[in-house]
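Our consortium's second objective concerns turning raw sequence data into structural hypotheses that experimental partners can test. To show how far this objective has progressed, the report includes one record in full. It was chosen at random from the queue rather than selected for favorable results. The single chain below, 248 residues long, was entered without modification.
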Amino acid sequence: MSRYSPLRFRVFDACRLRYRYQYLDRIPARLRVQDTAGSLVHRVLCDFFSKLAPEERSEERLIRMFEEGWEALSPRYRRMKGVDRLREDSIKQLKVFAAEHDISAAPLLVEPYFQVEIAPGVTLFGRVDRIDEEEDGSLHVIDYKTGSHPDEVDVGQLRLYAIMAEESLGKPVSRISFWHLDDGLVWTARLTDEDKRRTRSDLLAAVERMNATNEFPASIGPHCGHCPYLYACAERTEIQRRREAEGW
């Protein structure tokens, strides 16, 4: 395979068995109910900034757009166990967003799709939540996070987005950020030329490892609980035993 996404690199590092299921065996994923709610929040934020003029934006309009999107979901989904809590959590996230961020801002791009050739035969592709333009003309890559805070920041994901943005738009990316929607906290960092050089080098090294590997062991841990391939996993019994013994 010659096309690589930030998610693919992340999955390869997290669990080789899931990598095999997802990218080699092409087993269908089983999404969680919260994935649908999270996708709706992302879509509403995209439409909020791309379709409304600044003077039309307000917290009330943002929530109304979500409610309209929620009503458009299938009745079967809206009857599923736990979705009422997801709806409440999503509305809370959007209210936090409206309170903590400038809703009159003019992003340069929202949800742009990029596809760039990093090296002969190696194409990097993906969709970025948002790109703002800094005062000096450089770019700020932003990723919205609807889930809980991870133990470690996946800075590699943002750096890959930055490479795609620079290659596609012809402008340097100087800043990368995760905006956590559950509590409004922001993780942000400056991006140097050395960071970008190292990211390209690491990307090509990871591609070589992917193409050379023929062993796909499972990495069992708390992340297994929300894996979309758990239903088909050969380690389901051991995962259940570990969950009960370790309390995750």
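The partners drew two points from this record. The mean pLDDT is 95. The longest helix spans residues 193-212. Both points have been shared with the crystallography group to help prioritize constructs.
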